[in-house]
Amino acid sequence: MRLLLNDTVPGAASPGDVLDASALERLYAYPDRPWLRANMVATLDGAAAGNDGRTGSINTPADQVVYTLLRDLADVVLVGAGTARVEGYRHTRPRTRDLLARAAAEGRAAHPELAVVSGTGQVPPLLADRPEDGGGVLLVTCEAAGAEALDRARHILGEDRVLVCGGQGVDLPAAVAALSGRGLPRILCEGGPRLLADVAAADLLDELCLTVVPLLAGGLEQRIAVGTVADRALVPGVVIESEGTLLQRWLRSGS
């Protein structure tokens, strides 16, 4: 991996440097305050998934490295229920060894939590079990899901793991505040595109980590953000290149 731009983390590395794991971690470190970053991948023509409908078909090795690192650095992964079902989300795995030791020293959990946003209160089937070695699952939902769905979700996940935020729809600012209140201030949003647009429109997005892969996909796949109008300006902070893959950090202006 080769650094092309660094306007965000002084001293971490300089443009032209080949990055080792330590430098990469410094370039993606969270600030010392609550922070919501999103991580998305797109093709050269803007598709948010391959023509099979899954992001896995457009991932590259460099994207996978940063994907793993961002999860290791986060306290909680925020994802829409539809994306969790389509992509086959499972419980998060333990952090890498070095970051696991650091998390323990900081009083953080061995695994990042997984927070699933569902207006209907549905828990994706692959997340309904409780493995011995895996991160916990939180459901972020709203009153409109109905008492039956909420009771079922509480039975599956546990009474305290269902966060009812909002009446007729999920109140994302309240959800982010609830996650921070549970000691999970480092939030990583993995989409999908509708959730990302909603997060940006609610002015909750501090940072977008965008991987652009060297592939022209064609087809009819949607962009990385769709639905709600957001119109949020971001500025480039970090750009890394690896075998044609561009790994970028885009930050809220003034952050």
Automatic annotation (TrEMBL):
<protein>
    <recommendedName>
        <fullName>Bacterial bifunctional deaminase-reductase C-terminal domain-containing protein</fullName>
    </recommendedName>
</protein>
<dbReference type="GO" id="GO:0008703">
    <property type="term" value="F:5-amino-6-(5-phosphoribosylamino)uracil reductase activity"/>
</dbReference>
<dbReference type="GO" id="GO:0009231">
    <property type="term" value="P:riboflavin biosynthetic process"/>
</dbReference>
<dbReference type="Pfam" id="PF01872">
    <property type="entry name" value="RibD_C"/>
</dbReference>
<dbReference type="InterPro" id="IPR024072">
    <property type="entry name" value="DHFR-like_dom_sf"/>
</dbReference>
<comment type="pathway">
    <text>Cofactor biosynthesis; riboflavin biosynthesis.</text>
</comment>
<keyword id="KW-0521">NADP</keyword>
<feature type="domain" description="Bacterial bifunctional deaminase-reductase C-terminal">
    <location>
        <begin position="34"/>
        <end position="232"/>
    </location>
</feature>
<keyword id="KW-0560">Oxidoreductase</keyword>
<dbReference type="InterPro" id="IPR002734">
    <property type="entry name" value="RibDG_C"/>
</dbReference>
<dbReference type="InterPro" id="IPR050765">
    <property type="entry name" value="Riboflavin_Biosynth_HTPR"/>
</dbReference>
